[in-house]
Amino acid sequence: MKTVYPIVIFAIAFLCGEILQAQPGGRRRGGGPSRPRIEPEDLQFELGVAEIKDRQMFEKLSYQGPEVSRDAYLANLEFVKFIIDKANPQQHKVYFMNTQNYRAHPPYMGLVGINSRERGAITYMPRLTSPNGTVGLYIVDFQPNDSYSFDDIDRILKMLILKMPLLKGKVAFHPLRGNVDRYTREKAKYQAAKVAVYLDEDIYKDISYLPLNIAKSFGTLSILGNDGRPAPRDIVICKTLPNQMPRVAGVISETRQTPLSHVNLRAIQDGVPNAFINNALKMPDIQSLIGQLVSYEVTPQGYKLRAATKTEVEKHFAGLRPTERQVVKKNLTVTKIMPFNEITFEAADSFGAKTANLAAMHHFDLPDGMLPQGRGVPFYFYDQFMKHNGFYLAVDQMMAAEEFQSDRQFRQKSLAELRKKMELAKVPDWMNNALSHAQKTFADGTPIRCRSSTNNEDLAGFSGAGLYDSFTHHSDEGHLSKSVKQVFASLWNFRAFEEREFFKIDHKQTAMGVLLHPNFEGEQANGVGVTDDILYQTQGHYYLNTQIGEDLVTNPAVDSTPEETLLGWWEKDGYQIVRRSNQTGDNGQLLTAEQLKTLRQSLGKIHYQFAKLYKKSESDQFAMEVEFKITKQGKLVIKQARPWVF
Length: 646
Hints:
This protein has 646 residues and is an alpha+beta fold.
C-alpha cells in the first residue's frame, strides 16, 4: 500500500495539469488564452450572442436559480452575464454569454479566446419601475471589487443599449461594494447626465409590479366599476381593490395591494392570477384587449396578456371544476356551547376550524392574555335552527327554480330574501336558553364578537377568506340570538354560494358554527402575519402587514396602505420595515420593538405547534396566517390562525 500513494499523487498532479490546460479558461504557459479567438458575431448560440434583439432572446440566454457560485447576490434572480473585449482600443466588442450554460467569466473567456475585458451581469428586476416609467427594470453591475468611473459606466451602458435595444429607458447601474464609494463621490455626474442608478436599498421602493398570486387563466378582460358585479369568467381591472368580490377569473389592480387581503386570499385558494400593475389602464397591451377574451398569466418575471379563442376559454373552465361532488365534514354529535379550553383541535368537524384553531392555541404556552377567552357554538345549533324553521325545504325550493339556476341577479335577490327570513326567524326555546347562558358568561356591558366558523373555511387547502360575515353584539341589542342568527344567515351570502357551487360542495351539508369572544374596541393597530415570507420570498423571515386603528388589513379601506415588515425568525436578524403605513401622519412605526419581539416568539410557537397538529414535516411547504391586534391598552392579542394556502 505504501508504494501506491506516490503513484496516485503523481497521477492526480498530472491530471490536474492536463485539466487546467483543457478546461474553459485554463491557461497554458505564457498566460495566453487556451483557445483561438472567436468573434462575438461568430458565436454559436450555445456559447452566446453578439446582440440581444428582444426579451425572448434574453430569457433564452438567462439563468435563474441557486447555482451562482461566488455571486451570491445573483441567486434566484434572472441574469445574463456579459464581457466587453477591449483588445482593439478602437473597436470594443460585447459578448453576451449563454448564461444557461456558462455562469463564470474566466472559463468562458478562455473558451472564446479573449483576455482584455470589462465583465458584468445584466439582471432583470420585474417588480421595479424603469426610468421611462414602465414595468420592469434591468440593472447592470460588475465584479464585486471592481471600481469604474462615471465615464466608464456611461460608455458601457451606451454600448450595451446599442447591442441590446430593449435596455433603452429601462436600465440602471447597480454599484456593488467596490464601486459604492466612487459612485458616491461622482453622484452629481450621474444626476446631471440622467444616468439611472439602482442601490440595494431600492429593492422595495418604486415598485410597479407585484405578483400576488402566480397563476394562469382565461376570460373576458373587463374594467370593474364602483358598483360593478363581475362574472366568474371576468378578468377584472380595478383602480382600487374592493373588499369583497365574487369569484372572478383574474385580477389586475392599479393600486398596490396588501397580499393578506381577503380578495388575494380568495385568489390564492381559487388559483386565479392576481397582480398589481401600476397604470395598467395606460398600458397599450392591456388597453387594446379590454372587452375581449384573453389569456392572462402572472409570473415572477412579469405578466403575460394576449388575445385568446373561445375554444381555449371553454377548455380552461371545463378543467377547473371538480368532477365529483365534494364532501365536507359535519359532526352534529356535540350539542352544547363549550368554552375554548374544552374544545380540541380535532373538534373542527363540530365547531369549524376557526374556533378549533383558536381553542388549540390556548395550549401553546403563549403569553398570558394574548388569546381571547370565549366559547364555541357547534354546528348542531345551526342545523336545529334550519330544521325548526323549515329552511332546508325552503332552500330546496329556491334552488329548484329555473330562474334561480339561469339568472345571477335573480339568484342574488333570492339569497338575500332567504337571509332576511333567517334573521327574523325564531329559535327553539332550548337554544334560546343556551345562548342566554353563554351571554351571561361575559361581564355586563361587554360587546360580544360573533364570528363565522364553518366547515367550509380556514381549512388546510381552502381558506374561505371573506365568504361569511361576523357581527358584534352590543348589550343594548337584547338577546344574543339576534347576532347569532345574522351569522347563520351569512352562510347564504351570494359570494359564498357561488364559491360552493363552483367547487360542487353540497350547500345543505355546509354548516355554520359561531365563535364568541369579547369584542376589541378602540385598538391601536391590527395586522396579519404569515410564518414565511410569502411575498418577497426572502429566507428566514415572517411577513407582516399592520394598519393603524380598526382599518382591517384583511378588508382595507380604499387607498389604505399597511405597514409591511420582514421580521427575522431569530432576534439577531432583527426586522426591516419595507413600507410604512400611509395612515400615520408622522410616517411613524406602528409596532414597537418590544411588540415585534413578542410577536416573533409567538409566531414561532404557533408555527411549530400547528405543524405538529397538521402532521407536517420540515420538508413540507407549510405556514400559518395569524391575525393579531394591538389593543387600546397596547396589549398584543392574537385572534385567529389558519394554514396559508400556497
